[in-house]
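Feature request, filed as a ticket because there's no other form

It would be nice if the structure record came with a short human-readable summary line next to the tokens. Right now we just get the raw output. Example of a typical job, pasted below so the devs can see what we mean:
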Amino acid sequence: MGSSSSLAVFARAANGQELEAADGAEDADAQASGYHQMSDYLDLLHQRKRAKVSLRDPGRSVAIVTTASLPWMTGTAVNPLLRAAYLANNEDRQVTLLLPWLSKPDQERVFPNSVTFESPADQEAFVREWAQKRTGLACSFKVRFYPGRYAPEKGSILPVGDITQYIPDAEADVAVLEEPEHLNWFHHGRRWTDKFQHVVGVMHTNYLDYARREERGHIKEALLRHINAWVCRIYCHKVIKLSDAVQPLPREETMFVHGVSPNFLRVGEAKAAAAAEGQRVWGKGAYFLGKVLWAKGYTELLQRLQEHSSATGDNVPVDVFGTGPDLQEVQHAACSSSLNLKFNGPRDHADSTLQDYKVFINPSLSDVVATTTAEALAMGKFVVCADHPSNKFFAQFPNCLVYRTPDEFSRCLAHAMRNEPQPLSPEQLRRLTWEDATERFLQVAELKQSPPLHEQLLDSLLAAAHQSLTGMEGLRVIAGAGANTRDCPATVTAYMPSESDVGGLFDDSSRAKQIYRQTKAAKAAPQVQQQAPQQQPAQQQQQQQLAQQQLMARGGSAVTVAAAVAAAA
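Raw output as currently delivered:
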């Protein structure tokens, strides 16, 4: 389907029919030259698609497509949702948020605290309520879902079928692809730039860093580098990199286009006001928050803390909040190194229990930009982070302590633990807001010029090649797309994953198998707990009788015996 769509431009231009219908005239000379017909056709197509030249124009319809959804508290679930809320705050703009729908087994693997949904409508209500509470906005955007599958070996959600079908053609104006490479690795169907007038990709994740950390990482990294550039080129008119931690890409521009929710800023303002009155506002020390994957900063966290402990003798306590596939390994490594880390499970960064921590440590080198760093700064905390492109935007803030060496890390950490953070100025607070981030997004997403004709022709050829490859079922399975994921299921909720899908040739299948085992074990645990109460009355009665006999033998009073029995009960 997608391959024929990409090649259709050549067939239509060759006979000149669409050009004639649009112009209302016959041009014999142009028909005699295939090249001139192609040039005229593409010029006409360009004029049609650029009838509205700015994202700020009234009446634009914006579809924001992302790779994750709440209640999974990951950056690609939270930030696209907030972008939708703030873009929709303009009544002249229609916004749709397109989210992945997961089957019940995948929900159980991904969503924290055993939260699951029976229908897309239930999840939409959850997402919208969260956004309204977090922003204080009406959140009048539409929510649609596409079928997805959780790929445990990758730790991420992959689309199932051609997800361009889930945005009606009448609304296909602007598409914002959050993680365009991720959405399109295995995309087979209509080309985004054919369906939408303006396609903007926002790069969230440094997948090359993830790849190089794995077995045969240098091969995976080299291959993924070319694939990412390929799909971003053929499916996006413009690519926004949140930082230069992302690889070079065609038609790129670097800009941090995320912000923080107002509740984080309110916490910072309250802390500053309390400090001005002489109150003690920071009752806790250092913490780290993030999905528990080695690649998400846990490797560097353990290394820096171990170096700090060895160099200074200070085994600083750090509270860790998060869950993920590598939790047990990280806990074991921290214990083996005798580090003073306490693992507390997942927690929303806005949770009141986290507001009194003074120092947020984020030594990650894999982030493109860490939303948690922005949130910590907005709350008025110190942030200790590495000198890395992902932290360039944050280095302008006085409470961001940047280190380059292990020795500098120790000095930054010691400074943060001994001193009080500076209150942020109104201008500094403004730069962290979603209002300011939305303005930056609208500015950088504009198309300054169209690619030349030869690049457009090459893009069409590359798109046709990609569609041909992603149409082969055997190749899809080998590459890790999953079996029977090329075409859309009958309904959004119809797709059911198979535990036989454990990744492709370059994936770590053992990770997928481990997660499947953990899910089964978690399901079995409640059954064991349900059986325990049936035995409890008999055990309880025996304990009560034993306590009564012991106390009576010691000359205990009836009141004492009654109290002991009550305690046993």
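Something like this underneath would help us a lot:
The mean pLDDT is 86.
The two ends are 68 Å apart (CA to CA).
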